């Protein structure tokens, strides 16, 4: 935050929904807040254990509309207040931290360091509660407020906020409980907050782009893994941009280094950055082989192969070797679907990788993080919680012997920025019980470079482990770009595809199939694109002007707002669903069948496991409703059609015989038995009204006989309408 930044570069991250949130700063005060943040950041570099500075910066960040950063600073201030008062929080004792923080004796009087600890603690709690409120983390705000109210019972802020948040939580809980989701998903819906994802104005340019040095490094990784592909600038960047796209993509892509035959294995991508909710035989890829083939020489960890051991050793294992992270694994025990608790477990691998690379280096420049692209459109929401985004990372870093107060490379804004990149690129799947069960989240190092196509030429597979295998779906020419599909949409119409894929790109898909079909539809004038794009203006697009989803290769954190009213404010309930890459069955045998059994049933099982949000009828109805909103002409057509049908039905029902007759049809003499007492028989008519033709028996239409000018009462109709009765078959 010490780097120069101005009000012109400042963009708040708060997602405003009600007046009870922190109001936006007056434009003339923005520059003053920025100067104070920069000054306080400079002070922290020399006095990192002064809670007063952390609390002051938290207040300024809250005023600037960065509640997630205010939460991180206020929480650190409270930790230092407790520590200086001789109280060591439980998680600090768990982590056994070393370094400068532990050199301050907790037995020294607090007044020697910070004379107004009580007032400072109350101020930090107020900032923390309001920051959580602004982030829509209502349960954590309520819990924190209750703790603060017990400590400061006379403070009216905590009394009022506790009452407000209790009312909000009651309505929010009742609303979520009506949904069909599992208890774990409902818990996440209730607890997950969110903020807008932006490039912070003080960020250096390098973390915001993929440098040529990174491209060269990734190409060396490709060369070590395969001779079939290479990294280069994607052909998507050269595609003509239609008027509805509104953007010129500059992206990287994977290209074939030589001709590739159908079914040929192109790449086996082994990763070290993954998390699993169940204990597995292999510590790295979570393979559950019966007999681990490789034992680590440095500790008691087991691996399925020397390759997995070397991958772990070169990435993260050196800094976690001998450390007990059982407490972290216990937080995800029993999880079999994507859940909030999995986020810190995956983040742990990345933090360990950064620490192993050197704590003096900016984690955003780490090769495994720098290659990942977040969604920085300014209208995208990413998940934020106190527990998963602040508390757990601090616990992990302390156990990795990182000073979370003095080392600015692991500040809250960096941790949150790392998470936004992981959320946009990770994939998740439920593992079969025969392989150990549980849920796996992972990010393969090379997979994020494969771009999406609605007509992919590459297929990726996993075998209930984090190792991904890529196969050719068809013959691929040398130099042709390789595409896989983020979700199975090959048979879906263009408009619906754009709806489904919108969360991945925050814009229309620009693959060759979509561009080709768009041009064809445009030529046929079957799409009304208007001047703002295929879906009209931004307000009419799915989810409005705020994009609430973040998938690329895996979990898409999709945040849908639901309004809840309290006596004082409208509160936003942010819910989360997930979307993942869906594995699909290849249309031909593979050349490496050993990598995957040939059973066709496995494809359906993998697809089911890879899709964390099954489509339900109400979701389909909601999708149609949202799509109809995109094109008002549909409502006009629907209204006219329903009006015409309703008018016809009303007229026809009033006089069905008269309504359906085209001309007068003479009755057949002697064929009207109801005109003579005691008579019986069948009534007749002339076919086509031609009296020269042989008469035929007449059926009825609804409640009247098909004879002109005859409308029988119900009782006579039932007596003389013989059509369909025994002995009177027509």
From TrEMBL:
Domain SET spans what residues? Answer: 227-487
Q: Specify one Pfam family.
A: SET
* InterPro entries documented for this protein: H3K4_H4K5_MeTrfase, SET_dom, SET_dom_sf
Q: Where is this region: Disordered?
A: 1-26, 97-116
Any one GO CC term of this protein is: nucleus
Q: Which PANTHER family match?
A: EG:BACR7C10.4 PROTEIN, HISTONE-LYSINE N-METHYLTRANSFERASE SMYD
What is this protein called in UniProt?
SET domain-containing protein
């Amino acid at each position: 935050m010490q780097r120069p930044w101005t009000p012109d570069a400042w963009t708040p991250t708060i997602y405003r929904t009600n007046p009870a949130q922190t109001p936006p700063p007056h434009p003339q005060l923005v520059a003053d807040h920025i100067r104070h943040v920069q000054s306080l950041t400079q002070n922290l570099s020399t006095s990192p254990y002064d809670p007063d500075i952390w609390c002051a910066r938290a207040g300024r960040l809250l005023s600037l509309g960065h509640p997630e950063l205010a939460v991180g600073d206020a929480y650190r201030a409270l930790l230092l207040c407790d520590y200086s008062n001789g109280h060591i929080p439980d998680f600090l004792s768990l982590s056994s931290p070393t370094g400068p923080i532990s050199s301050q004796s907790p037995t020294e009087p607090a007044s020697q360091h910070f004379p107004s600890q009580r007032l400072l603690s109350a101020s930090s709690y107020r900032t923390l509660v309001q920051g959580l409120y602004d982030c829509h983390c209502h349960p954590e705000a309520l819990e924190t407020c209750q703790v603060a109210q017990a400590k400061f019972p006379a403070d009216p802020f905590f009394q009022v906020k506790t009452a407000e948040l209790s009312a909000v939580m009651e309505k929010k809980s009742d609303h979520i409980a009506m949904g069909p989701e599992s208890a774990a998903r409902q818990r996440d819906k209730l607890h997950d907050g969110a903020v807008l994802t932006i490039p912070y104005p003080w960020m250096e340019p390098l973390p915001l782009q993929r440098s040529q040095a990174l491209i060269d490094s990734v190409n060396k990784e490709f060369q070590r893994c395969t001779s079939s592909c290479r990294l280069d600038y994607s052909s998507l960047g050269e595609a003509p941009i239609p008027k509805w796209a509104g953007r010129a993509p500059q992206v990287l892509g994977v290209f074939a280094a030589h001709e590739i035959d159908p079914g040929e294995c192109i790449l086996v991508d082994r990763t070290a950055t993954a998390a699993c909710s169940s204990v597995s035989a292999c510590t790295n890829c979570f393979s559950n082989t019966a007999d681990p083939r490789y034992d680590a020489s440095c500790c008691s960890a087991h691996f399925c192969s020397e390759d997995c051991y070397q991958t772990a050793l070169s990435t993260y294992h050196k800094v976690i070797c001998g450390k007990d992270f059982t407490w972290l694994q216990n937080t995800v025990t029993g999880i079999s679907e994507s859940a909030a608790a999995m986020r810190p477990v995956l983040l742990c691998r990345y933090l360990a990788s950064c620490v192993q690379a050197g704590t003096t280096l900016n984690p955003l420049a780490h090769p495994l993080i720098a290659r990942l692209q977040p969604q920085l459109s300014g209208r995208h929401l990413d998940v934020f919680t106190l527990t998963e985004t602040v508390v757990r990372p601090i616990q992990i870093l302390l156990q990795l012997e990182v000073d979370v107060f003095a080392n600015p490379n692991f500040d809250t804004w960096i941790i949150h920025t790392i998470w936004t990149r992981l959320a946009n690129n990770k994939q998740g799947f439920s593992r079969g019980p025969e392989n150990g069960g549980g849920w796996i989240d992972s990010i393969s190092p090379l997979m994020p470079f494969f771009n999406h196509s609605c007509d992919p030429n590459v297929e990726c597979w996993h075998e209930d482990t984090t190792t991904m295998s890529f196969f050719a779906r068809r013959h691929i020419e040398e130099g042709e770009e390789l595409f896989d599909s983020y979700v199975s949409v090959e048979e879906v119409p263009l408009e619906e595809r754009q709806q489904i894929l919108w969360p991945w790109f925050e814009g229309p898909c620009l693959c060759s199939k979509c561009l080709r079909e768009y041009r064809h539809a445009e030529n046929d004038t079957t799409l009304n694109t208007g001047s703002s794009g295929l879906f009209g203006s931004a307000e009419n697009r799915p989810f409005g002007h705020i994009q609430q989803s973040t998938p690329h290769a895996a979990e898409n954190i999709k945040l849908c707002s639901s309004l809840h009213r309290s006596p004082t404010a409208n509160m936003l309930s942010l819910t989360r669903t997930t979307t993942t890459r869906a594995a699909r069955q290849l249309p031909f045998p593979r050349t490496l069948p050993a990598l995957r059994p040939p059973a066709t049933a496995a494809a359906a099982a993998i697809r089911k496991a890879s899709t964390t949000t099954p489509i339900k009828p109400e979701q389909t109805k909601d999708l149609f409703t949202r799509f109809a909103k995109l094109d008002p002409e549909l409502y006009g057509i629907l209204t006219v059609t329903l009006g015409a049908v309703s008018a016809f039905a009303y007229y026809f029902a009033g006089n069905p015989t008269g309504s359906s007759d085209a001309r007068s049809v003479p009755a057949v003499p002697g064929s009207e038995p109801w005109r003579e007492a005691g008579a019986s028989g069948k009534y007749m008519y002339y076919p086509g009204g031609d009296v020269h033709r042989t008469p035929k028996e007449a059926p009825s239409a609804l409640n009247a006989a098909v004879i002109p000018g005859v409308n029988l009462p119900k009782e006579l109709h039932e007596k003389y309408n013989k059509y369909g009765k025994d002995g009177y078959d027509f």
